[in-house]
Amino acid sequence: MSNTKAILDLAKKTILSESDAIRNLNTLLNDDFVHSVSCIIASKGRVIITGVGKSAIIAAKIVATFNSTGTPAIFMHAADAIHGDLGTIQENDVVICISKSGSTPEIKMLVPLIKRGKNKLIGMTGNIDSFLGQQADFVLNTFVQKEACPNNLAPTTSTTAQLVMGDALAICLLDLKGFSSNDFAKYHPGGSLGKRLYLTVADIATNNQKPEVDAHTDIKNVIVEISEKMLGVSAVTENGKIVGVVTDGDIRRMLNKYDDFSGLKAQDVMSTNPKTIQIDVLAIKALELMQENGISQLLAVDGNKYVGIVHLHNLINEGIL
């Protein structure tokens, strides 16, 4: 039991230590952050982000965040840069160099080469008095008191601080560029995240079977229609327009109410005010409407014309839910 407590205590201490360091970043922000954002916005090139060791891994993640939020970025490992990859940097590019100490051998070799190319250099470092801190055009201070590592050696808190500073840059750039959810969908077409932003009701409903009866269809054929189309529901239509709906629940209630239902028609058991949704609406809105009303399917319409069904299972299969 004591071992369990010790493990949890250490985990909590690590999280609190890192959260305190992140909170302290607020006090380190200054005009250089603003100038960095403005520099990137004004640039006609890309953002080249570089680092070595664990900082290189953070650089790669920030590149991914930039690219997914509308700021073109490329990762360049600092060690590779001084062995041939320096050509990655083009004339109008802005370079962000990440280093906790700001004085590693690779950084000391790389920075003068970047400066020689006259590219704007943004330094992200935990030591603003370091070589990188002194040479950069703008400095993003990611100082931390100590690492979460008990030996104060393994990059933990410092890399978290770098990552958060990168996120702050990305979000500011996103906002200034007016990057919208539609833009986000363009860059994230795959997976459930993208589908939430572009998949419409039409994309789903038109691929489903289309259960449909008229008001005078006898109840046996209504049940057959619901069963064969396997969506738990059938629209009741007149001249292509919806006048009602019969669901599995309506059939169960009918069975409880009537001993003999052989003479019943669809109009006798249907609900006359079914929930509908236009086909050009995003599928995520269909999910919200289902949740609000405690239902598992909606009738899809194009104007007033019945088009088909969108079912909760469709949304689950698409990863929307």
Describe this structure in words.
The protein is an alpha/beta fold and about 325 residues long. Helices cover about 50% and strands about 15% of the residues. It has helices at about 1-30, 30-40, 55-70, 80, 105-115, 130-135, 155-175, 180-185, 190-200, 200-205, 220-230, 250-255, 265-270, 285-295, 310-315; strands spanning about 45-50, 75, 95-100, 120-125, 140, 210-215, 235-240, 240-245, 275-280, 295-300, 305-310. The strands form three sheets. A five-stranded parallel beta sheet has the order 2-1-3-4-5, with helices on both faces. Helix 1 (about 1-30) crosses helix 7. The longest helix is centred in the N-terminal third of the chain and has 27 residues, at about 1-30. It is elongated and about 90 Å long. The chain starts with a helix and ends with a helix. The model has no long low-confidence stretch (mean pLDDT about 90).
What general form does the structure show? Answer: elongated
Poorly predicted regions are none
Helicity level, as a percent range?
40-55%
Number of helices: 15
Strand content: 15-25%
Distance, first to last CA: 39 Å
Structural class: alpha/beta
The helix/strand series, from N terminus to C terminus, equals HHEHEHEHEHEHHHHEHEEHHEHEEH
Q: How many β strands by DSSP?
A: 11
> Gyration radius, to the nearest Å?
30 Å
Widest sheet: strand order? 2-1-3-4-5
How would you sum up the major sheet? 5 strands, parallel
Indicate the mean pLDDT: 91
